Amino acid sequence: MNNSLMKYSLVKAVIIGIVLWLNCNLVFAETLKPWNLLSPIQQEALSPLASQWDSLPSKLQNHLLLSCKQYPTLTLEKKKLFLSRLQAWSKLTPEQREHARQKYLAIKKLSAEKQAELRRAAIEKANKNAAASNVQAASSITQTIDATQPVITEHL
C-alpha cells in the first residue's frame, strides 16, 4: 500500500508540474505583432525598423514596443534623437548588436565616475570626428568650386 501511495504522489506531482509549466509558457508566450497592426504612433516611432519588423524575434519586438511608449511625449529634438539612434541600431548586424549589448553591460558595471569619464571621452571623440568631417566636406566643396570655375567663366 505504501508503494502505491508513492506512485500516486509521484504521478500527482508530475501532473502538477506539467500544468504549471504549461501555464507559465502560456502566460509568458510572446507573439509576433505584424507591422500593419501597430498603431500609427508606434509605426512612426519604429519607422527605422519598418522593413525588418516582421522578421524580428517577438522578444525584441516587445522590447521595442515598450521602448517607444514614451515617444508621443518626447520633444521634437528628443524624437529626432530616438529615431536617429534606432536608425543606427537597425543598420547593425546581429553580431554588432551583440557586441554593443556586451559593451553596454560592461560599462553598466563601472562606477558612476568612470561612466561619466567614458561618456566625456566619447563626446570629445564624436566632436573631433564631426569637425574632421566638416573640414573634409568644406575641402570637397572648395575642390568642386575650383573645378567648375573655368566652366562658369567660359559662359560669362
- Secondary structure: helix percent: over 70%
SSE order: HHHHHH
Largest sheet report:
none
Tally of alpha and pi helices: 6
Structure description:
The chain is mainly α and 156 residues long. It folds into 2 domains: 31-109, no CATH class; 111-156. The chain has 6 helices and no strands. It is extended, with a radius of gyration of 28 Å. The chain starts with a helix and ends with a helix. Residues 148-156 have low confidence and may be disordered.
In brief, what are we looking at here?
By secondary structure, the protein is an all-alpha fold.
Q: What topology emerges from the helices and strands here?
A:
Elements: H1 2-27, H2 40-45, H3 58-67, H4 76-90, H5 94-108, H6 112-154
List keywords for this structure.
156 residues, mainly alpha, 6 helices, 0% strand, extended, disordered C terminus
